[in-house]
Amino acid sequence: MELTIRPSTKFIKIGYAAVIVLLVASIIAQSQITLPEGLPSWVIPGIVALLLLWPASRHWSQRFTKMTMVGDKLRYETGMLSKATLEGNPDDSALQGARCNGSAIARPADGRGRRPLD
Hints:
This protein is an alpha+beta fold. The chain folds into 2 domains: 7-62; 64-118, no CATH class. Helix content is 34%, strand content 22%. The protein has helices spanning 10-32, 43-49, 53-62; strands at 2-5, 65-70, 73-78, 83-88, 99-102. It has a 5-stranded antiparallel β-sheet, with no helix packed on it. Strand 3 and strand 4 (83-88) form a beta hairpin. Helix 1 (10-32) packs antiparallel against helix 2 (43-49) and helix 1 (10-32) runs antiparallel to helix 3. It is elongated and about 65 Å long.
């Protein structure tokens, strides 16, 4: 049986909510002030909307982190194109095992970037 655990998204959701509140506040503030001539009405909310890139980038990188438990082996993987994998036995006092860092090009044919243990 395989158990897969991913990081929590609660802080990412808080980031999205904070940026949306700032976006709504900027739209309200813009309606209350007069803009200089030649400045489009979408500039101020557009600049604030760029803040959505911060939680979106965190969310994107979080989707490529996972911990998998198969039998008595624990595997921690991070990365999308270049994978870093740490494998070991969770019964040990310290997680010891094989660590493999491999880019998408340098990975072996099995596609997971793992190297056999000696």
